[in-house]
UniProtKB/TrEMBL annotation:
Chain's gene name: LOC115699695
InterPro entries: ADH-like_C, ADH-like_N, AOR-like, ER, GroES-like_sf, NAD(P)-bd_dom_sf, Quin_OxRdtase/zeta-crystal_CS
The keyword NAD appears for this protein: yes
Name of the protein this chain belongs to: Enoyl reductase (ER) domain-containing protein
Pfam families the UniProt entry points to: ADH_N, ADH_zinc_N
């Protein structure tokens, strides 16, 4: 995808934005005249090709981060797009690079006011990576926050080679990443995961050694013991 020249970057763009907290159907509006963010010296400006929504966007819209937020807000954390402008201190990227990432460098501590549900967004170069050529923009935009959640959770759980892990909710956005990371990056000796009947083959294809049908089997009755349990569904008390 060709990047527009700096002369063709508009001063305003379309963006989803909200100025109050509540249900998205009540507060989220598509505004065609939102100023295009100006990148800081360590940031790049991205022409957004794809963006994704995560549970944190929904929770934030309902006021979860009210203590640190500054309305109005353009939601969205994940992005994939093309660099159209670079700050003076940027070293990793140039205009025309296809990039992806989670633009919120500080997570929920102080999330970005201007997110990714817009035609343009700005992000620090340290939170971005070049988009793999074998991924579409849509595929790339679906990865960052879910992958970060999976990886950080396994680190906090101290999963290491030779240890086993049970993933509750293995067929979801985070769960599918946990299975693959546990098996192929963290070196787990055994990966078990739960899902509905129709998704058991998906779990196995991702690397799960044991696929548990939660509709037919109570996970608490599984005889195996696991070193780490990663609950993505928040539905089971063990």
């Amino acid at each position: 995808m060709a990047a527009p020249s700096s002369d063709s970057i508009p001063s305003v763009n379309k963006a989803w934005i909200y100025s109050d907290y509540g249900n998205s159907s009540d507060i989220l509006k598509l505004d065609p005249n939102v100023p295009v963010p100006q990148p800081r010296d360590d940031q790049v400006l991205i022409k957004v090709v794809a963006a994704s929504i995560n549970p944190i966007d929904f929770k934030r819209m309902h006021g979860l981060l009210k203590a640190v937020d500054d309305l109005p807000i353009v939601p969205g954390w994940d992005v994939a797009g093309v660099v159209v402008k670079v700050g003076s201190q940027v070293k990793k990227f140039k205009v025309g690079d296809e990039v992806y990432g989670d633009i919120n460098e500080t997570g929920t501590v102080k999330p970005e006011k201007f997110g990714t549900l817009a035609e343009y967004t700005a992000a620090s170069e340290k939170v971005l990576a070049l988009k793999p050529k074998n991924l579409s923009f849509v595929e790339a935009a679906s990865l960052p926050l879910a992958m970060e959640t999976a990886y950080e959770g396994l680190e906090r759980g101290e999963l290491a080679p030779g240890k086993s892990v049970l993933v509750l909710g293995g067929a979801g956005g985070v769960g599918t990443h946990i299975i693959q990371l546990a098996k192929h990056v963290f070196g787990a000796s055994k990966v078990a995961a739960t899902a509905s009947t129709a998704k058991l083959d998906l779990l196995r294809s991702l690397g799960a050694d044991l696929a548990i049908d939660y509709k037919k089997e109570n996970v608490e009755d599984v005889p195996e013991k696991f070193d780490v349990i990663f609950d993505t569904a928040k539905l089971t008390k063990l």
